[in-house]
Structure prediction request, 324 residues.
Amino acid sequence: MQEISKQRLSGNVRSPLLVTATNGHRDLASIFAEHAAVFKDDLLEHGAILFRGFPVDTVEKFSEVVSGVSDARLNYTYRSTPRTSLGGEVFTATEFPQTQEIPLHCENAYQRDWPMLVAFCCLQPATSGGATPIASVSAASKAIGSTLMDEFEQRKVKYVRHYRPYVDLPWETVFQTSDKNEVASFCESAGIEHSWLDEETLRTGQVCQGVATHPVTGEKVFFNQAHLFHVSSLGDDTAQSMIDMFGADGLPRQSFFGDGAEISPDVLHAVRSALNQQTYDVAWQRGDVLLLDNMQFAHGRRTFAGPRKIAVSLCNPYSSQAPS
Prediction:
């Protein structure tokens, strides 16, 4: 491919493959259309690819690029964060306040089904900050250690959520419907326990994997969001305030082992530390496209100032219930 060059970005941790344009050839969609198989192989080998120097500066151009490497796209149902649809299964990145950092995680790892590919596009970089940290899940899994990995694999993770008016995401947003019967149908099909505590308060619980095996590489990796859902992720002061407000059994979000037992905050601190030790920050430039193998790399978000617009597409669905 004479129109591009490839190099591994340097760093002390696993980092993306950088692909840049040469000879003035900057139409990334046409390059993808011609060499999609090569990029799929690169993504499997490197886990992350950053395309830079191509003018992918609109949702339409990004969508066209994604079509060259994805087999199918996911709609963002059973949501855990606020996003805005930009059309064609393209969404904004999580719309948490810009002063709030988003911890490292694998997309939809709190579900039994998830995308194998997460594609990002920088439509507008922040004035300052706003990098997307990524981290090798393989390296983090090794740092977590076999004892904890075995425990998460055997016991799994249970996510319990309480939906109330004006607290966290409303159930209508999470399930993308205002029909309680549709919520019931979704929950039943997904194996989610659900009950209405009163007219406005919905409680759900679901047991999902703690560890998962990559369907192509065969590698077993830490794959859950216990460290995000657990109240300890909010910090000691905020966590205690939440417990005081809602009670330990009524928190908007909480994670347990699959058998319902508490997960020690020390365990989750070890998980966060293992991920953070592998962090590589992708500092955005306008038009950048980043592809992540969702089971090889976790991602997050740094705080930022000024307008920032990152588009995201979740692609190539995979189910933990798929036959091996």
Summary: The CA atoms of residues 163 and 170 lie 6 Å apart.
